[in-house]
Amino acid sequence: MMNCIPIRIVALALALAGCAEPGDEAANDDHGDAAASEVGKGPHGGRLLVQDGYAVELQIFEEGVPPQYRAWLYRDGQPLPPDAGHLQVVLRRLGGVTDTHSFEPEGDHLAGREVVYEPHSFDVEVLATIGERKLRWDFASYEGRTTIASRIAEQAGVRTSSAGPGVIRDGHEVQGLVTTVEERHARVMARFPGPIRAVMVGVGDTVRTGQPLARIESNVSLSEYTVSAPFAGTVLTRNAAVGDLAGTTHLFEIADLSQLWVDLHLFGADAQHIRPGLPVEVTRLSDDAKAHTRLDRVLPGTATASQSTVARATLDNADGAWRPGAAVRARVTVSEQPVDLAVPLAALQSFRDWQVVFVRVGDEYEIRPLELGRRDSRHVEVLDGLEPGAEIVVEQSYLVKADIEKSGASHDH
Prior knowledge:
By secondary structure, the protein is mainly β. It folds into four domains: 4-141, Immunoglobulin-like (Sandwich), CATH 2.60.40; 146-167 and 338-407, conserved putative lor/sdh protein from methanococcus maripaludis s2 fold (Beta Barrel), CATH 2.40.420; 171-179 and 258-337, Beta Barrel (Elongation Factor Tu (Ef-tu), domain 3), CATH 2.40.30; 186-254, CATH 2.40.50.100. The protein has four helices and 32 strands.
């Protein structure tokens, strides 16, 4: 039973609606219906819709239950029993989705039968029949939505992509070093000691198989002989100069750099999970350059200094972009699990108590609260809250969040 104070609130709202001048009804719909206006809050804290002496108070109720509509009916400032009328609420969401909510009497109110799922952001059409009178209201109730012109979004670097299937990878981060391939790395020495009479190459030169590198006069035969390249490659070091005496120190260091090894150091449990054949993404620490390969082998011994197990992969270096000695980090993928829907971690933002992405429809952006599953370093599985094919913001999502917060799109029930 309502006390007199709420009844007076309704009566005052109805009186204000009746005193409005023609053309002042800000909430009139755009279809030529009878004058309709929205007047504040009702006694139960819901949105109060008033028209020609009739009123509907509409509220989204979510205390201990999934969100659902509740509605109360009034005439001439007096509450009506819930069976005094019929009510239907049509919600039109961004992207063309329409939800229709029907009601049935429950206690002193009409209770919606359907869940009002998040986000509570839609254009609302309320259709009521009280007695013989048919009533209609239209209003917008937006939450987590903003409009950004496409030109401005492009200039700000906002980029979108269609949400779809993905792969969640169980990866292990390790450190390592780029080295030369042993069988394609040689230290070239003199066959016989003696003075060096000529040097034909320098550090960084590319040589072919059998190309002369130096001439040496043998101390044994006193005749000159040629030191040649054992294979095609690059001169890494030169310890030879004309007049020097060739002896037991190597003269040149040559390596074929078209392929290189990456030696990765495994510690603890990583050594138990990582095995040959697993995919590896290698990132150079100096400039974040990346390469993809697979592990060739896990060496049987333990590195004495670091007490690590070494896993080795081969890098294709035909373009010469990688150099021996470069420090790297690598991500070894132990397992891959396909999922029906995944989004980049960079697309996620926090909004209220949710993790959300922003869906784009034309120039409008709106939150989508997500139920998330498994994740890796780059992607996360989406269990609920997003439709496959939806266009979501994948870069500069924080700018969209900031614009929504600036616009003040609130959780208005």
